[in-house]
Amino acid sequence: MTAKTERKIAAAGMAGAVLAILAAMLVLSGLMVGLGARDDRVLMTASTGNHR
Question: What residue intervals traverse the membrane (predicted)?
């Protein structure tokens, strides 16, 4: 193989690795936002009319 072909393979591998890292970060941030930002106490603030 020539050096040019090896460089293309290396560049493709690095680009794939960068895309994989970005995809993993997107998935992890989505999980953190979806699972970590819930606050169940907000659902309990409705008034029942029985307060004094």
Answer: 12-35
* Sign of CA pseudo-dihedral 31, 37, 39, 42: negative
d(CA 4, CA 11): 11
Measured distance CA(24)–CA(42) in Å, rounded: 31
Question: 13 Cβ partners below 8 Å, 6+ apart?
Answer: none
Distances (CA, A) of 19 to 11, 23, 24, 47: 12, 6, 9, 49
DSSP state of 42: G
pLDDT at 25: 96
Pairwise CA distance, residues 1 & 7, whole Å? 10
